[in-house]
Fold this sequence. Notes:
By secondary structure, the chain is an alpha+beta fold. It has 8 helices and 13 strands.
Amino acid sequence: MSPRPLHLVLALLVGGALALPAAAQTAAAPQAPAAAKPTPKEAAKKAAARPAPFKPILEQRAVDLLQAMSQRLAAARSMSFTAVAAYEYPSRLGPPIVYTMRYDVALQRPHQLKIVVPGDGPAFEFLFDGKEMVAFAPAENLVAVADAPPTLEGALKQAFDTAAIYFPFTDLLLPDPYGAIAPGAILAYVVGPSANVGGVKTDMVVWANDEVFLQLWIGADDKLPRRIRAQFRADPKGLRHDLELSNWQLDGAIPADTFSSAKAKAGQPMAFAAPGRKVPIGAKPVVALEPKPKTPARPQ
């Protein structure tokens, strides 16, 4: 089915560049005198004034907090939670306005997943049972079914690659969330404590690689993520994305019929394929599903 509802999650707008009038570009201008060639001493002094190459700064306590969060999530045989994503979109005047979308998530390891998007925007359901994945739009009564890899991470990657289906919390569902974000890290440090997020005490952590800058609020006692705030480097407008995570239930009993839907199976079939437009800038998992080590970015 068309994954248009999912595109609303992180819809980003690329601004166009303004071109100078041709006449202004070709107008005659006084010729500036040729600059004198610097002496070796002046060249050395100028080179010394350049900023030193940036070296990754990874504070151990920040790494420990991220690993503790990862271990808590990876150890759970089942989990359910509510995620509310808030994302900015430019208004006609320029300043961004904020839209929100809610996700109700249920996961039973190793390979059962159900995600329900009740609104705002078109309602949507995604199901995976270890053999196939189902995308269902109840209002339109449209359903797409496709064979899927047996692993959860494989199914999520295939959904993204083939149909641009994206969830902003994908990495939290993987067998090793920290292993997905660790490669390519250039910055990690602890900002400090907070008692204003999720109704619990949290530790605020900043984490970044060459693609995204994140701030995470991690429960001080339960080590569960409570909020994630992101900005993508590829987005020229620097729009912000916020994810609130609540109603956490780990290792609780989840009814078996949670991961099936008779109504979805009875829907009108349609192809499980990508939409006609490209995935917007930044519309991908918060961290890469299959990260590849890369050389840290060198700021200019």
